[in-house]
Inverse folding.
């Protein structure tokens, strides 16, 4: 009887873990750039309707292209969230023009606010907190605003390698969220070390942050490509995970897929339901169709196994 109960408990644990894995993936979001979106004939062939699609705003991308891409995706039935990078914006008047065009020209009511990748701002705005403080997103009826999270720090902000300034900024944004009508969440850079992510989420929760976390995950791609992106984005503990993987020739020859990372995160959520981690955000480094197909396949497989 004891062995039977042990078997039943193990089966129940496995089912709980699969359910947690499925829930983590099922609400996924993904992102595109205008130039990559232009190469997609029909998003509805592989991306379920209602999904949140971020539009990355890279330096040099005209706002006309951003708004046109946003309108196309909105018309196709997706929830569109353009990046609004403060350091690409000259002043409040330019920001208002962008916000107005997204709202009234493309039907957008969500945005990811971030500093942007430029070392020096092009004008008077340089942080997502300044974007929030303009009040323009509230004025134009934006219902959801996301901010960037840095689980492994950000050398552009904390040049001494600490997390002092990013932590302080996060507390300010938490305070703002408590006074705003907009729903807010944190979306993170992609990572590969589950333990460092879990420690970060627990640390900011202890500091009083309650914003849900949409965890950045790299979609399937070649390991060499992933290492290149990881170096350029400045990920910390995660880079060592990739380097160890690269030493295994059997893994070097096949595309990286984040199953192991996501399983660890899902297992943590199953045993820590209070975790701030809510869902994943997919960075389609190996292509948006390949990344969406990968997630969709696992969501469907999980539903079959738990149904």
């Amino acid at each position: 009887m004891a062995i039977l109960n042990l078997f039943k408990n193990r089966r129940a644990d496995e089912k709980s873990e699969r359910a947690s894995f499925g829930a983590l993936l099922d609400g996924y979001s993904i992102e595109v750039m205008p130039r990559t979106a232009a190469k997609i004939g029909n998003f509805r062939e592989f991306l379920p309707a209602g999904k949140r699609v971020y539009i990355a705003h890279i330096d040099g991308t005209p706002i006309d292209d951003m708004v046109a891409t946003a309108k196309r995706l909105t018309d196709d039935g997706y929830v569109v969230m353009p990046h609004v990078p403060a350091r690409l914006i000259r002043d409040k008047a330019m920001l208002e023009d962008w916000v107005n065009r997204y709202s009234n020209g493309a039907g957008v009511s969500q945005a990811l606010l971030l500093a942007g990748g430029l070392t020096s701002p092009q004008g008077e705005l340089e942080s997502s907190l300044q974007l929030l403080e303009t009040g323009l997103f509230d004025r134009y009826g934006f219902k959801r605003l996301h901010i960037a999270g840095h689980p492994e720090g950000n050398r552009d902000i904390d040049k001494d390698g600490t997390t002092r300034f990013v932590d302080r900024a996060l507390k300010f944004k938490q305070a703002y969220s408590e006074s705003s009508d907009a729903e807010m969440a944190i979306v993170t850079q992609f990572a590969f070390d589950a333990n460092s992510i879990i420690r970060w989420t627990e640390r900011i929760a202890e500091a009083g942050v309650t914003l849900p976390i949409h965890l950045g995950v790299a979609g399937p791609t070649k390991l060499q490509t992933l290492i290149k992106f990881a170096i350029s984005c400045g990920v910390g503990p995660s880079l060592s995970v990739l380097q160890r993987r690269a030493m295994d020739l059997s893994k070097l020859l096949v595309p990286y897929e984040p199953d192991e990372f996501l399983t660890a995160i899902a297992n943590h959520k199953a045993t820590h339901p209070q975790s701030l981690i809510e869902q994943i955000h997919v960075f389609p480094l190996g292509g948006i169709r390949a990344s969406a197909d990968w997630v969709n396949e696992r969501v469907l497989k999980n539903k079959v196994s738990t149904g």
User: Anything to note?
Assistant: The first helix runs from residue 2 to 26. The longest strand covers residues 79-85. The CA atoms of residues 104 and 167 lie 34 Å apart.
